[in-house]
Amino acid sequence: MAARSEDGDRKPIVTYHGDQELFSSIRAEVFNTLPRDPVEWRRSYGRGPKLIFMDVTFVPFTPDQLAKENERTLFRKPCFHIYFTDCADADAYKLVVKDDITAWQQSLKERNVSEWLIVLVETANLKRGNKSKLLPRTSVLDKIRSDFCSKQERRVIVLNEPNNPVPTNRSLESWQLFIQRLRELLLAAYSRVLLRFEEIVRAERERRNDRGWDFCKYFLLQEELAFTFQLFHFEEDALVQYDELDALFSQFIINTHAGDNPAWLSSFVAPCTCWDGLNLLPSVIDGKRSLLETGNVALLELRNYLFARQCVLLFTMQRPWEVAHRAQSYLHNCVQELKMLEVSMPTGSMACWVFLSCLEVLQSCEKYTDSSNVENYSHFTASLWVYAQTKLRELGELCGLMPDSTSNSDQLHLVVNLLSGMGQTQEASVIENSPNQKLREALSSSDSFQKHYLELSELAMGTFKHIKRMRSARLIGKDLATFYMKKGEWTKAETFLIDAVRIYEKEGWHLPVTNTRRQIATCQKELGNKHKYLKTCCLLAGDCALAMQERLEFLQEMLKIAKELAEERGEPDDEEQSLKVALVPLYSVARLTSIDLKPEDGKLGKNEGGEIFLRIHSNLPETVAVDKITLAVNHETQDAEDQSNQLPLPKSQSQSSFKSLSPTVDQWGTVTDGYLRSIFLGNQQTMIPELMQDIRYQTKDGKRNLDCAIIYCKNASSVLRREDSSSSLGKSFEVLQKEDCSHPLHLEHVEIKPGDNTLSFAFKASDNGLYSCKQLMMQLGGVELLLPSIQPTIGMEVSSPDPQLTVTPKNGSVLLAGIPQEIYLTIFAGYYTVTSQDTLSIQTLGRLRALPADEADGYGVRTEESGATVSLPDIPAFQTREFSVMVMTLLVDSGAEPGEEEEEELTEQKKCHILPSQMTIWCPWSETVIATLTFQQPFHIKHQLHTAGKRKLVQLSVDNICSMQFMLTSPELTSDGPVQLQSVNGKNATATLCAGQTMSYVWFLSDSQQQTDEAEFRFTLTYTALGEGDTVPNGEGNTVTNGQGEPQQLSHSFNLKDYKTKYMVSSTIAPPSSDEFCRAGTLCSLQLHIQSALDDHQPITDQNSPSLMYQVLADKHMWAVCGRSTGVVAMPTSQEGVDVSLEVMPLLAGFLPVPKVKLTNYITGTQELSGTQPVTQVVLNQPSEGSIIPDGTTASSELDGPAASSMNGLTEPVSHIPAATEKTSPASLVPFAAGQVYYRSLATQVRVLPESDITVLDVAVQ
Is the preceding peptide bond at 1183 cis, omega within 30 degrees of 0? Predict the structure, then answer.
């Protein structure tokens, strides 16, 4: 059967019947117009709608073409039928057309076909004007509808004058309606056909386990669906059909292991005679389908055809990367299926098939040259290139085409058999540069084979490098090295092997490194390169992964070459001969594990001797005699100006500190790649990423919001540079260079044993500076084993520093005043040697004192006037000693006024309880140290005056503001005036004051007859720090010691002025006369009584008769003052008081505090002001003696300032003071001093009842 390759053979078929000539006149227009616009296709089973273009094939109607019921085809039978007629006469319709349509309809009904359309064409009639103008009773269209389309009116349509050269609007509308109707009916018809066909396919799939079921027939059946979707340009749906067939066939192959062998599978198990690879030519693909239709198809042919169809669809969808990705699993699955089915294939035929298929896919992908496609499919084509190279090498080994072999007769016969089984498709064998021709050419001769093998290897390696898979590229290079070794090209082989070793070392694959180095050694030995061969022998001799016998052989090779180089070197002083020395990295045979210094801190003085101990671990299999070992020590001088820029040596260079930075090794005892980088690239500048930040904001609705924060690398191109492309980095591990050093240390004739070896180098220097270890060299004959860099930098520091004295409090915290404290004198001798004859002279200033200490071990403190002398013991140079000295500063009288010299310095510091003190120390090495010690006062003292009527009490409070405990004794208060003091503290006023506690002392001031109202007082107290003889921690982490246990004394001075009681004020709340108690919301009377508190023998005269202003300060939430809250009274000359009555209203019920009253001294303009109290100027009428200013209707001013000050936390402005309108004079308000006014009713409460005890409750009863 001929294969149909064009889409036209698979278009839906539509038949036409009736007037053939009429349809022929419009056929071209219908054929072109129908697929012009898309139509929406709504599919079943919830699948989404799609737009398709209807493109069909028109054929004449014959009854034989009609599909039978359940016929398994989509394209061979018509799916829609159209009847064309242009009959306009009803009589002609009855005689001819009706019978013809009836016969056509009968043929369709016999085959159960319901998809048809009748088209009535109205043509232009030139003789229309001669006919009767009477309208006919019924038209032809009505008769057709009544006869055939009574229930399906959409099955008939009128087409008006389709062939009119000048179309009218009616003809255009009828044509558009016809095309739209035809598209809809065609799509509905084809959807029903397709749905019915899908049901057939689904039913056939369910019968796959029945006898007689054939996969090839089912394959062709389901492929019809794929062709349909491909015709409508639904490549994804078409690909799904082929994927289902692929999965179904693979499952049948897998089931063969369980003993399920269907009969149709026997044709695929037949011996394979054709191993043509994959071919994507359309003619070849259609040829394979013809084999499927006949049932004569092999397993490889079926797989080739199925994958070819998938590739065509993927290439149509522009997915070459998916083709390459699927090709890998396709090739491997086919190979496994052939093995599972045990298909008989000649030797090498499978390799031919894989090679041809790989090249076909690769050549097809290379047609897509777009950069994005190349970048995508390169990740998958790389593996295909390797697969093809592997199979070509397999064919070369089978056919004797490798460089180290020669083809025999059997191999030539094998080549002929392989060539006969491929290229059986004529189209595949004639295309230029096709995979078939390449394989034929490669198998033709050894030279051609090598050419194609190298070409494939380079392409595979380049692709892996392009996708940055360097390890895979190096593996291909290793295969090329083996190929070149067989060919005898040792230089090329060595290059590829060295690249492979580098990538193995970087990733830590030690065994591949060892095996590859053995190949490198073979290449270098063949090339006669002694220096490189020597290095490789050293590496292999110290490689624990090799057998001991092999290591000994490489060691002997190393010693042999070293001896030969020593003989060639000649005299050591000959510069030309010295250039012939071979430099080999030390890590190849040994590694430096630790460095110890003596002294441990690595600090020496001038001409002072020290030692450097190196511990080296040898990997050689036996003891080796080394001629000379040299440790290169470089001198780095330090200038005074540049010392701040120098990096200091670590404080401890002992073995324990260096082990943390020692070289890391793997399980074979070989140093890792990171250590090699540190020793070879230690002096090179590290490329540090320069990170930059970019914070962006956006403004919306006037608000600035964070949009994004970006961190980017400014030098990303340098930091992310591919290491393989950097020639300097790759060669750095092999470039060794000896550096010049100022102080080389030598050891001669040393035996290095396997394992750990300790080397001791004596060191001595006469110049200051840093002496760092740079390189280590071992000379063995004509070979020098070099450690190019010792990391981290380690060495000796030679210096002659100046002696230094530092003064620090114990634990470096604030000291306490008034208590002996301990400070440390730290002496660093430097180059100076302190003897027992040297002393330190200490001078103290102000209240600071140094306390004596007994001499012990050559150290003692002897106090002197305004200072002390410290005797020192012997202190060697560069040593540090620490001594303790007890100091104490006296407490400051907290109440005394400072002198003129101390006023500016101590005013702020006393507020913070800080007392700074200075001490000057003269050192024997001509240095003067001025130290400032900060002391904190342990106590805070405050005084307070209390009043009880005319009696006065003074309270002294002592706060412990440190964390120590004290014993307080002997409190005493004295006065320089005639004031009598009476203590209420008891006879034995001894107490313990803990941290954060307060101790109070109280004295009564006895009444005296002195005329002055002022006195000065001084309070003294004895305190003792608890824990005598022990150390007690304070709050700052310090410790104090009261060595002698002597009590200390603190003092506080203060004065009292205007402290006697002048007036006593009492206030009461009286309920209204009609009620027994005060009630909320009811006016009550506030009775004020102001009485003088002066003694009877001090009568009040007219001259000292004062005027007082009272002010009611009521809480606004509790009381409402009705009327004026302020008034002025004139005190009488007699001892009688003044009564004032005000109206107030309680706002709340309960026990309310009585409103407070504030009394202020009212000074008229004619009186003189005295004292220091603040004054407020007002304008008032001077009241008469004993009178009370009534509430008026006007006010001349408002008071502010002291008159409106607070009392006991309440604040109320003084306002609305009444004044007369006739004559005014300025007046002032002077507040009384503390204690001059005694308020008897302070904190008194009054009971206030609610407004009413009767509550009316409304109750609704239903």
Answer: no
**Phi and psi at residue 555, to the nearest 5°:** -65, -45
Q: Is the dihedral of CA 58, 61, 65, 66 positive or negative?
A: positive
Tell which wins on pLDDT, 649 or 1237: 1237
Taking CB atoms within 8 Å and a gap of at least 24, the contacts of 545-553 are 545/510, 545/511, 545/514, 545/668, 546/514, 548/621, 551/621, 552/621, 552/622
At 429 the pLDDT is 54
Side-chain half-sphere exposure of 1156, counting CA atoms within 13 A: 16
CA atoms within 13 A on the CB side of 858: 11
Q: Residue range 618-629: average pLDDT?
A: 91
d(CA 992, CA 1025): 10
Is residue 825 classed as helix, strand or coil in its secondary structure?
strand
Please identify which residue in the block is written with the tokens 């060495």: 795
Of 247-256, 444-453, 1177-1186, the one with minimum mean pLDDT is 1177-1186
**Per-residue tokens: 1139:** 């009564």
Cα gap 683→634, rounded to integer Å: 14
Contact 1041, 1217 (CB under 8 A): no
Residue 811 pLDDT? 66
Give yes or no for residue 577 having a pLDDT over 70: no
**Tokens matching residue 1236:** 């001059």
pLDDT category at 132 given cuts 50, 70, 90 is: very low
957-1006, pLDDT tens digit by residue?
Answer: 999 888 888 888 889 888 887 788 888 887 677 888 888 889 999 998 87
Name the amino acid, one letter, at 644: S
**586, 737 contact by CB (below 8 A):** no
The kind and range of the H/E element at 649 are: none
Q: For the chain, how are helix, strand and coil distributed in percent, rounded to 5? A: 35, 30, 35
Question: Ramachandran region of residue 1034, left (φ > 0), alpha (ψ -120 to 50) or beta?
Answer: beta
Q: Is the pLDDT of residue 1068 over 90?
A: yes
Max CA pair span of the chain: 160
d(CA 872, CA 838): 6
Pairing of strands 1156-1163, 1225-1231: antiparallel
Nearest to 887 by CA among 917, 859, 928: 917
Which pairs with CB-CB distance under 8 Å and at least 24 residues apart come from 522-525? Answer: 522/485, 523/485, 523/490, 523/491, 523/493, 523/494, 523/497, 524/494
Q: What is the pLDDT of residues 463-480, one digit of tens each?
A: 999 998 998 999 999 999
- Give me the sheet containing 914-922, strands edge to edge: 815-816, 928-936, 914-922, 839-844, 867-871, 859-864, 853-856
Asked if 60 and 17 touch (Cβ cutoff 8 Å), the reply is yes
The 3-class SS string of 138-172 reads CCHHHHHHHHHCCCCHHHEEEEECCCCCCCCHHHH
Q: What is the dihedral of CA 378, 380, 381, 385, to 10 degrees?
A: 130
Run of H or E including 1070: strand 1063-1070
The DSSP H or E segment spanning 1069 is strand 1063-1070
Strand duo 609-618 + 590-598: pairing: antiparallel
At residue 329, φ and ψ (nearest 5 deg) are -65, -35
Q: Which residue is associated with the tokens 């996969």? A: 215
- d(Cα 920, Cα 11) in Å, to the nearest integer? 113
Q: Is the pTM of this model over 0.70?
A: no
SS3 1203: helix
Q: Quick one: what percent of the chain has pLDDT higher than 70?
A: 79
Lowest mean pLDDT among 901-915, 952-966, 968-982, 1110-1124: 901-915
Pairing of strands 1225-1231, 1039-1041: unpaired
How far is Cα 435 from Cα 439, in angstroms, rounded to an integer? 6
